[in-house]
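Hi there,

I know you've been waiting on this one. I reran it after we fixed the sequence typo, so this is the corrected version. Both the input and the resulting structure follow.
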Amino acid sequence: MSSNSSGAVVLLSGGLDSTTCLYEALEEYGYPKVKKPPILAISFHYSQKHIIELKKSKLITNRLGIRHVVQKLDPGFFLGSSLTEKKIKVRKNAKSLLTGEEKEIPNTYVPGRNILFLSFAISLAEGHGYDSVYIGVNALDYSGYPDCRPEFIRAYQSMVNLGTKTGVTGEHSIQIKTPLLTMSKKEIIQRALELQVPLKDTHSCYDPVRGKPCGKCDSCLLRNKGFAELGMTDPSLD
């Protein structure tokens, strides 16, 4: 652990990207040499269709002995998304996603999700005296989400610097860390393997069927593409 590091809050969904971010934070803060690394994971229950992700995230943090907060949000939040409303079907087999021709914001976009999630994480970080917040946003394998872009993160970082006591007084600056921002899914999987992330226990599917990945939603397509490019089979499908 570096001498000027105090701790991190990690936004954890239980998916490939966020779990890899958790392991990036663990590496930075000295795990496993540090028995109790100063890391706090936060997940959200927002009546999402892929609620199984919370079970996966708990499995991962329990195994690591990492503190984990699950924040439940009222079902009135995040309306208008196929991830939260039964009447809206999750889009499938979006060829534009794989060809890099994505031009529309898909219906899996959740209104203001990262804006709100980051606010909770920043509050936790400042309250605990931590200096980092990890989020697994990715802009290269672009899924059309405006809150996963570098310009969004830069703008949010400016807001944090201006809107927190630690930012204004200069006690320490809470940094939003996005280690996967410019990586392809293939590169993320490679990094996950280096960090020994338990890929088998991660869940990325937006519309699981009896707990199993549908294989056709945007998240499944990108995940499958990454493993295929490495000549691997996704261990979570075993």
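Quick highlight: The longest strand covers residues 39-45.

Best,
R. S.
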